[in-house]
Amino acid sequence: MKPPKPPTAFRSVEPESDPTGLAWLPTWKVVYLVVIIFFVLWITLLVALTVSFS
Amino acid sequence: MSALDFIVLIGSMLSIAIYGIWRTRGRRGLKSYLKGDGKTAWFAIGLSVMATQASAITFLSTPGQGYLAGLGFVQIYFGLPIALIIIAAVFLPIFRRLNVYTAYEFLGLRFDTKTRLLGAVLFLLQRGLGAGLTIYAPSIVLATVFGWPLNVTIISSGLVVIVYTVMGGSDAVTVTQKYQLAVIFAGMVTAFCLVVMKLPDGLTLTDTFALAGGFQKCRAVNFSTNVHERYTFWSGVLGGTFLMLAYFGTDQSQVQRYLSGASLREGRLGLMFNAVCKIPMQFFILLLGVLIFVFYLFEQPPLFFNATLSQYLAEHRSDPKLHDYETAFTSIHAQTNRQLEDWLKARHGGDQSAAAAAFAAAMTAHQQGENIREEAAKTLSAVNSSTTANDADYVFITFILSQLPHGVIGLLVAAFFAAALSSKAAELNALGSSTTVDFYRQIIKPNATDTQCVAASKCFTAFWGLFAIGFALYAHLVENLIQAVNILGSIFYGVMLGLFVVAFFLRRVGGTAVFWSAVASQTLIFFLYFNLTISYLWYPLIGCAACVIFSVALQAFLPGVGGKSGLRAQ
After folding, report:
1. Is B35 touching A (CB cutoff 8 A)?
2. Do B55 and B122 belong together in one domain?
3. Is B519 domain-assigned?
4. Is residue B30 a contact partner of residue B189, using CB atoms and an 8 Å limit?
């Protein structure tokens, strides 16, 4: 008898080849890049607020 | 609170609790109780991770921090997006591949049992004490709303959270957190809109920011390189990254949340959701505090926001000294108000010099008011040692109860309880899980059945709840809650993170070297904390670096190469 397959939830996967499932962000590197861009934008806005009103 | 407030409060809390019990009915297995059923989608994970971090402290104490010190506290979150990317790329795939219940199980697989237990002990100690701090927030709300003694509200709210967590387990925490967060956001957005509406007529958005900026409340980013300044861009990005990396990557209360995901993708997207949303969310909560500060420049604030001090003041109004403080404070506030009205007229009329003069006079009057407040607090503390001068945690709840309409008060009090339940339940659940998996099943009863483990986990959850209540009863806070909880984390998290960094990246280091290095590093951190005055945000970085350097150095003197095969980072 074959050993049972591990459940899908915990099956071993290659981390970077794991699909993102997002149409416009096909790889994890792109997802991380977008997060960094958001971060830099927020810092820029906060710096602008500080400079304008302090 | 009116009958309408109680209907909103009880209705929203009961419906969430009943939903949680209904959704998790019949789930009795160890895996389900500790880790959920492994089917959670990314959005629910994202909200669960957010709700676990965003305790009632966040919603009660952060506006107070904004009121007191402005927007600078937002810098503590600058390391968060970087940390979450590292966790999604490195930590999460390894935890999932090994299918572990707790993060410390990984340390046991990679090193040895003693290192696993050390990681678990550091977590239990830090999180157990932290749980004591998080009980404070709903207790403050209850004490202010009902006028009950703080000790009574600590015990009663602590017991409610224990019962809720023991009944539901991890699954109940995850399924109800999104609805609790919905109540929280509804409450905070309503409060934000109402503060804006309550600002004086004629005060534009630019005026509001100019006014707040004049009182140094809009300094969101500070590029100073002085390590003694608590919140700077550098301490946020460097120290904050290590603090957040340790919190999200090694604290079981968070690891448990994203390990419940249906797949690696769901866990990663849940983390990225937080990486994008967390800084804006904290900014708006701090801004709420700044707006309340501006509101109270025009509206008479109480001499003390702190419920205990206010109550003492009300009971001893006949004392001539206290009466004088109140009268002087009211009079100086009226003076500030008049100066600010002059400033507004001159500003709108384009008279820059008159505006500058009126603003300078308003600032002087405001400072005099703060001096009176400080002196009165000292006097009260001298005559009644049980009173604490910490006012910041009471600012928002006082504003809610005195300024907002009925119905909204009930909604916001419900929001505090929802936040308290969601984060506290996640913490206690993680403490119970770690004690069961890392100690009970490892040392006390290795052959325990699933049923015995679930029963043990419930007992440990209750134990940690009682431990937290005990700590809360005896802890005297010198900091406001949001800072106290982060300081506590900073003391322990660096070394915890160091253990994981060595496990992931230093293949040649074995269990004995890393164990003794972690013990030495934690001792070093305690020594530095009590002897230096640098910003607490640097301690996670120092603790992690010390653990890594000591491990490499010690391994060079030990025979053989540590590390079990097949457990390295891919």
Report:
1. no
2. yes
3. no
4. no
Mean pLDDT estimate for chain A: 77
Helix ranges (DSSP H) in B435-505 = 450-474, 481-505
Q: Do A28 and B220 touch (CB under 8 A)?
A: no
| Residue range B498-552, pLDDT digits in tens | 999 999 888 889 889 999 999 999 999 999 988 877 888 899 999 999 999 999 9
| B213 interface with A at CB cutoff 8 Å | yes
Q: Provide, as residue numbers in chain A, all residues whose Cβ is less than 8 Å from the Cβ of B570.
A: 14-15
pLDDT of residue B149: 80
Q: Å from A34 to nearest chain B CA?
A: 9
Is residue B483 assigned to a domain?
no
Chains A, B: CB contacts under 8 A, how many?
A: 89
Domain tally for chain B? Answer: 2
Q: Examine the domain organization and report whether B265 and B413 are in the same domain.
A: yes
Best B218, B223, B260 member to test A by mutation, with max A CBs in 10 Å, is: B218
- Predicted pLDDT at B429: 81
Closest by Cα among B391, B368, B390, B461 to B34: B461
B31 confidence band (pLDDT: 50, 70, 90): low
Chain B positions touching A49 (Cβ under 8 A) are 71, 209, 218, 220
ipTM reported for the complex, 2 dp: 0.80
pLDDT at A51: 93
Residue B32 has pLDDT above 80, yes or no: no
pLDDT, chain B, mean: 83
The number of residues making up chain A comes to 54
Closest approach of B347 to chain A, Cα-based (Å)? 15
The tokens describing B194, both together, are: 């109402």
Query: Which one has a higher pLDDT value, B149 or B298?
Result: B298
Domain limit, last residue, from B459, B476, B493: B476
> Which of B360-368's residues contact partners 24+ apart within 8 Å by CB, and which partners?
B362/B297, B362/B336, B363/B214, B363/B215, B365/B332, B365/B333, B365/B335, B365/B336, B365/B339, B366/B215, B366/B297, B366/B336, B368/B332
- Do B72 and B162 lie in a common domain? yes
Residue B358's pLDDT band, with cuts at 50, 70 and 90, is very high
